[in-house]
Design brief:
The protein is an alpha/beta fold. Helices cover 25% and strands 27% of the residues. The chain has one domain (4-155): UDP-N-acetylmuramoyl-L-alanine:D-glutamate ligase (3-Layer(aba) Sandwich), CATH 3.40.1190. The two termini are 15 Å apart.
């Protein structure tokens, strides 16, 4: 069994739980924050999603070092933990035009998520394409949609 660690705010945590509830087992996603991060520094996550700034760089670095994939919101402050070793497993997302995954358009009902670079999944690689993400919640934001889409690609969900 694999584990996904997600560092994000409470609103996104609730949205991601709702989006992923029928795709992954409940205990496969672990939500991390400043208070509990040090408790998980020895856990081996298959993927780590960084959607918020974390001050505990030591614990975060230990978690990232052992993970297979690092999903990083390129719109947040650049972190010194993103070094050459991390670049090999880094998948960026955000409104930044250089991100692996970005939004090409948005409507009231959906986002059109643009995968700009090939992403290595566990079963197959996914190349450049646009993927429609239906908003099933009124308060879902584009970042939640991009996170869910990348997880779907990596884990073939």
């Amino acid at each position: 069994m694999f584990f996904i660690g997600i560092i994000t705010d409470k609103n996104s945590e609730n949205n991601i739980k709702n989006i992923m509830k029928n795709k992954l087992e409940k205990n496969q996603i672990i939500f991390l924050n400043e208070k509990n991060l040090s408790n998980y520094r020895n856990v081996m996550f298959d993927s780590v999603v960084i959607n918020n700034v974390i001050e505990d760089k030591g614990s975060l670095e230990k978690i990232i070092k052992k993970s297979k994939h690092v999903l990083y919101n390129s719109d947040i402050k650049r972190d010194e933990i993103i070094n050459d070793d991390v670049y090999k497993k880094l998948i960026t997302y955000g409104y930044n035009s250089k991100a692996y995954v970005t939004i090409s358009s948005a409507t009231d009902d959906s986002y059109l998520i643009y995968v700009q670079k090939e992403i290595e999944g566990n079963k197959k690689n996914v190349g450049i394409q646009e993927i429609r993400f239906e908003k099933n919640l009124a308060n879902i934001n584009a970042y939640d949609g991009m996170i869910a889409t990348i997880i779907d690609i990596i884990y073939n969900k």
